[in-house]
Structures are given as C-alpha cells and as structure tokens.
Amino acid sequence: MTKKLTDTIILRHGAQLKSRIAMPPMLSYSGSAGGYATEDTLKYYSARSQAASLLITEYHYVSETGGPCSQLGYPEQLGIQDDQHIESIRSIAKALKKDGNKAILQIHHGGREAGIRASRGQEVLAPSAIDFPFLNYSLREMTHEEIEEIIKDFGRATKRAIEVGFDGVEIHGANHYLIQQFFSETSNVRQDKWGGTLEKRMNFALEVIKEVKRVMTEYGPEDFILGYRLSPEEVHGNVVGYRFQESSQLIAEVAKYGLDYLSLSLWEGYDSKPEGYDQSYGQLFKEIVGDETMIIVVGSVFDEKAAQDAVDNHTDMIAVGRGSLIDPLFGQKILDGKGETIVSEISPAQVKNTHWTTGLHEAFTRKDSLGLPPLPGHESILALHQGLYDDE
C-alpha cells in the first residue's frame, strides 16, 4: 500500500487523524514559577494548532519531585503535579485543539535531571544515588514507597488530562528522564523489585503504563490515545546503559498494554539504525509492536519531500520538530497541497512568523542554541539575541 502524508489515520482505540504528520514534544521555555502556562505559552501553542494532525505538548512533570528540568534562569518547564495546574493544561488543550487536530499531553518525571531543585536546596531523587561526573549536585535513592507514589502520580496526571479535554497522553520514557533511568544499568544499580536484572529494570516503566491504562479505562473516552516515547539506545562512547536488543524487549512488554503509538526519539535522523543492523529503528520496532500500533519517528525533516520519504520507508507517521518551529503551518500546508510553500530555513524575517516564546527566541539566537540542535539558517539570526537570561 502506498502511503501518503495526507492519509486519514485511525488509531487503535478509534481516534481519527487527518494526516501522518505529528508535532513532537518540545520544551517551550515559557512556564511561570511552579510550572504554569503563561500568555507566552498559549500564543506559541495556539500558533501551532495546524502544525500537524497529532500535536504533542512539551513534557509536564507529574510529581512535585519531578521537575523542573529546564535551564536555570530561563522560564520554567510546565507541570501537572497537582490540581492547581488543571486550568494551566486546560488552556493548552484548548489552544491546540481549536482547529480540529488531536492534542496529547506528555507526562514525565525528571528524576536526576530535575536540577533546578538542587539549585533551590531541595533533594533530587533518582533510582540510585550515583555520583555522576556531569552533575554538580548529589542524588538520593528513591524508597520503594516513593516509587509507588510516583507511579500513582502518572495516573493522577492522566486523569487531569482527561478532565480538561486532552485527546491522549504520551508517557515519556526517553531522553534520560526517570523511566529511562530505571531501565538503564548505568543509572540503576538497585537490587530489589526495581533493579538488578533486565526484567526488574523494566518494572518501573511497566507499572507506570499499567497505572495510566487503568485510569484511561476508568475515566477516559473509548478513543483516548495512549502513546509511549522511547530512546532506542543509551550509548555514550564506552558507557552503555542499554542497546536496541534490550529496549526491544522492553517494548515487546510495553506493547501488551495496547499502545496507539510508539514514538522514537532519534538524534541521527529518521532513517538511523542500530549498529550492525540493515533496518532502521522505525522498521525494527514496527515488527515488534505490530499493525495496530503506529510508529512515529522524529529526525531532520524540514520539507515535504523528506517527510514523504520517512513514511515511504521507515515509519507510519513522521514527527516534525524543528521544521514546525520554523514554520508553524507545516502540516496544514501539506494538507492544502501547498507543501512547496513550507519555509525550511530560519531567517530574521521568518522569526516574526514563528510565534516563539521569549525563552525559545533567546535559546535559538544563542551561538550554542542552548544545547539544542541548531536550525537551518541559524547564523542569520544570531544578531537578534538579547541576552535576557545569559547572566542567570
């Protein structure tokens, strides 16, 4: 079957998407103290209500100990750790859904990455109290009781997402945050239910998805969407947390809970593959999850041609991150048959059309892009940097 970007997609639980294009989760650097959406947040998300047919928010931390994980001095990461944040996420859901596309709330716990807590003199929790050379603060190992409570927090966050009108949730099991930390033998050296063997290192992820699925079944509509995000490997030189062979076993278990989609966080492009394999990650994981679960990959897509190549050869859906940062109408232009008008490079003139938050503007106009992958045309906008947060 020939796949088109403009195909209508019916997900496992019945949700209908207008196309094969998704907007992946991307930190907006826009939250106020405590992780609440601001006017800047809503302007940014409202401008992207037509970026894709499946619109995934930036990560929201589910427990008080789970964040913020954002850059010190910049506007904060958003949260959904208690009922005080309900109106915050309700406003984001409304902004994203206003043009009829599906909105997904990404939920996570930062674990060791919640470094702003350390800057405030608060404890930073992790699976194991390891002294990592790249952290300038210490970690405390979570107790069994704390782990169980955080699992419940993922369920509570899911119920809040249902209450305010989100169409689904994405469990963030990637990018070195808590779920990945439990799965990684570099980060998890426990010798209890939560670590010690590969099977036990899977337990936290599986308990989280079990709790989220329970809440979905009890409180959500039948077509509520369940997504899971994965970093397929954790390899940094000679330091290996896990490889594809291990993550494929994890996903085989995760998939038993009936995912609507599996989202792969890829840094080397949508066609990247594990060492020693002929197939791409997207192709390999599709064989594991089966036909009813959509594969979403992200990586270096800035125009219609690359997006079409991705779905032709490597994935069911393509997530367009930096491309939708440059052109917020990326997905709608393709639906309208105007893919050739997509703006693929940033420029001083295009910055005005991006509706970036102040934090994103400052991040992408820095020489180092604040550690983010630079945008095509990056050099052209360096003169726009204002230095609002550089001294923090």
TrEMBL record:
Sorted UniProt keywords: Flavoprotein, Oxidoreductase
SUPFAM superfamilies: FMN-linked oxidoreductases (SSF51395)
Domain of life from the UniProt record: Bacteria
Segments forming domain NADH:flavin oxidoreductase/NADH oxidase N-terminal: 15-336
Transmembrane domains' residue ranges: none
Short name of any one Pfam family annotated for the protein: Oxidored_FMN
PANTHER family listed in its UniProt record: BINDING OXIDOREDUCTASE, PUTATIVE (AFU_ORTHOLOGUE AFUA_2G08260)-RELATED (PTHR43656)
Protein name per Swiss-Prot or TrEMBL: NADH-dependent oxidoreductase
Species: Facklamia lactis
Taxonomic placement: Bacteria, Bacillati, Bacillota, Bacilli, Lactobacillales
